[in-house]
Design goal:
Layout lengths: L2 H9 L2 H23 L6 H21 L6 H24 L9 H12 L3 H41 L5 H9 L1 H15 L5 E8 L2 E10 L3 H4 L1 H12 L1 H14 L3 H5 L2 H27 L7 H11 L5 H9 L4 H31 L5
Antiparallel strand pairs: 1-2
Length: 357
């Protein structure tokens, strides 16, 4: 397929176009409502707490309520491995991007470049475009992210040794608990007691019977699966509203005057995902670590996200270039909103040309 045909096919795909427009329109709605005063100063933070404490854990857990097959398991292992390797690579590479800055500023910008808002910004978009499989892959990918975010990033930004409270944050976070529990149940479903029940398709009775693990609530306990599914459905719209609300409460003019913040935004939402595409395609072509299109696309979208809220909070809490970090967070969020549709289109065009399997 020619590039021209791939472009046409991409932008005539209603699922892709609607996912992109949904993201942009709801973020703009949040921005407008904040500017109009409908959303108060702290409303974005309240939405964020709801998403992180309720919606995303439900989304992560429910995404694992589906059959497992050798291919999906193989892809999951590859994503887990890459999710650890890529952060090791970025930890060494990102400081080189800020070689002209002071050591303190270089360290801060390297951390902010390495860690993006994969949970809050990335997973809702991945879920909207690639469905449950995308959420599974993004949840697995985030395991390495959280290990390094709550260990290396914390130590580097605070200047302290690893504390017990951060280990607790790493493992007692609702999203982490839901991810590990869901992942464990997904993997062992073939070796636990099975039951035969009427087949359910997205909570609706379908023709036939299903032979599944007893805890597959999407088939055996729809009364429990459906409320979790409702909560999971809140993740994307509430996250996008909160992003727009946050953008509407910060001075874009002041941030736009900072050249280093613009340079950082380029590195975060363009260079980092580009590095991932290049390496992952090479690993796929050489059969060293072949991954499917959905797996690669999920990783790239996760890496094209703006500043991680936790990384930014570290900078503010420990007075490590707090103003610069806030400006970088704002500009990278604006840049990510602009670039995300472009990355989605680029990935789909590459897929249409047969680059991925």
């Amino acid at each position: 397929m020619s590039i021209e045909s791939a472009i046409v096919k991409t932008f005539t795909n209603s699922a892709i176009v609607s996912a992109i427009t949904s993201t942009i329109f709801i973020i703009l709605l949040g921005f407008w409502l904040r500017k109009q005063g409908t959303f108060g100063e702290k409303f974005g933070k309240v939405l964020t707490k709801v998403v992180l404490a309720v919606a995303l854990p439900a989304l992560a857990f429910n995404s694992f309520m589906q059959p497992i097959d050798p291919k999906s398991l193989h892809q999951g292992i590859g994503i887990l491995i890459w999710g650890i390797i890529v952060y090791v690579i970025l930890i060494f590479v990102t400081p080189l991007l800020y070689g002209r800055e002071t050591k303190d500023r270089r360290d801060v910008m390297a951390i902010l470049t390495t860690f993006g808002s994969t949970t809050f910004f990335g997973i809702p978009i991945v879920g909207a475009i690639y469905g449950a499989k995308g959420v599974i892959y993004s949840s697995i990918f985030n395991i390495g992210y959280r290990i390094f975010l709550y260990s290396y990033a914390y130590i580097k930004m605070s200047g302290l040794k690893m504390e017990v409270k951060n280990v607790e944050k790493m493992f007692l976070n609702p999203i982490v608990i839901a991810t590990f529990l869901g992942l464990f149940l997904w993997i062992i479903q073939g070796i636990v007691p099975q039951v035969t029940v009427p087949l359910m398709n997205n909570g609706v009775p379908a023709a036939g019977m299903a032979h599944v693990a007893f805890y597959r609530i999407d088939q055996t306990a729809v009364w429990l699966w459906r409320p979790l599914n409702y909560l999971a459905g809140l993740a994307s719209p509430l996250a996008w509203l909160a992003i727009g609300c946050t953008l509407g409460s910060i001075s874009v003019k002041d941030a736009a005057a900072n050249k280093l913040a613009w340079y950082y935004s380029f590195n975060k939402v363009i260079l980092v995902p580009l590095i991932n595409i290049v390496i992952l395609v090479l690993l796929d072509i050489t059969h060293i670590m072949p991954l499917s299109f959905v797996a690669i696309a999920t990783i790239v979208i996760m890496m094209a996200t703006p500043t991680a809220a936790v990384a930014s909070a570290y900078a503010i809490s420990y007075d490590r270039e707090a103003v610069l970090s806030s400006n970088a967070s704002l500009l990278s969020t604006i840049s990510a909103v602009i670039m995300m549709p472009i990355w989605i289109a680029v990935l789909n065009i590459l897929n249409q040309t047969g680059l991925f399997h």
